[in-house]
Each structure stands twice: as C-alpha cells, then as structure tokens.
Amino acid sequence: MTETARIGRPVPDVVAEAYMRGEPQPRRVSPASFRGRWLVLFFYPRDFSRVCPTELQAFARLYPDFVREQATVVGVSTDSYDAHKAWFETDPRLAEVAYPVVADSTHEMSAAFGVLQEDGSALRGTFIVDPEGLVRAVHLNDPDVGRNVQETLRLLRALRTGELCPEGWTPGQATLSPHPTPVTAPDPGRTGWLPGVPG
To answer: What pLDDT score was predicted for residue 47?
Structure first.
C-alpha cells in the first residue's frame, strides 16, 4: 500500500513521464529527483478545462520568483503526455509555461499524494517539499475553486526562513523569537488582579 504524503515525512518517490516545452520526448521525473532544491508540486484536475489554465498561467507568471527562492515548480494531472503536448502547444494562454508538467496517466503519483478522485482526475493539491525531501506544506481544495499561487509563494518564502512566522508574514517583516519573554505569574496574595489592569 502506498503511503500518502504527510507533513514531516519523506515525499513519495513515484517516477512518471513529464511534458517539457521544447523537448521532443517525455522527461522521466520523480519528486525525489529534485533533492537539494525546494519543490513546489501542484496537482490540477484536467487539461482542456476552464479553471486550470488560470492556475497554470499564474505559476508561469510567478515562476521567476519561485526560481529566486531556489525552488522547482512541477505541475501534475492525470492526463496523458500526448494530451499535455497538444494542449500546451496550442493554447496561447499556456505559452509561457516553462516548468515540467507530469502526465500521471497511471494515477500512481496522484494516489501516492492522496489527491486521486473516483473519476480518475486529481484534486487541486499543492505540496511544498524541502531540499531534504521532506513534505513541509500541504493544501487541498475543491476542483471548482482555483488556488492562490501568490499565497503558495508566500508560504514557500516563510518556510525558507527556518524561523517562526506569524499570520500573514511576508518578506521584510519580523519573525518571532523562538524564546518568548516569560509572563510573570500574578501574586496570589493580590485580589482583583487582571493583566494590564492596576490592582
């Protein structure tokens, strides 16, 4: 039985063919082959669909930012390599997609990451894997709603700090100290004591 990807565990090592613009033949890739770099692996339901190209475009637009964060972006759907090639080379909205797109036609990768649906398509799933090959972030949502790629980039940047990051943290903001200032316990002899209120 294949183990589903989980936070803090090694990324499932599934080999599959991928479409890569400009290459005449499929490229064999696996999540483990990107060890040494951060990996942003995102699953989408189907080629030739309506919501998916908006996400693929967003990842293409922000691709240089992911590269600056020492991350590789890889898309995945359960469509075939030939379907990927036909779609990515004819739809002008996808002309800037320069990252690999896995053709998980065997469904092995989608099953290993826990995103395979009964109809054979994948949920919208995003996985961030660190250079040691450990899963550091997982996000899943309904196929009808596209993900926020800018938020994926923000989360990657936060994880790369290696520090405690508060809600909504963005680069340039302070992170949190791992050793917070201890709170002084109230004097049990005082009555009516409330923090911050003279008593």
So the answer is: 97
- Which segments of the chain have a pLDDT < 50? 1, 198-199
Active site residue 165: no
Q: Which two tokens stand for residue 103?
A: 């053709």
pLDDT for the residue 192? 54
Structure tokens at 108: 């092995």
Catalytic residue among 39, 52, 116, 155: 52
Angle (CA) 145-13-110 rounded to 5° is: 30
Q: What is the DSSP string of 52-110?
A: HHHHHHHHHHHHHHHHHTTEEEEEEESS-HHHHHHHHTT-GGGTT--S-EEE-TT-HHH
Cα–Cα distance between 4 and 151 in angstroms, integer? 23
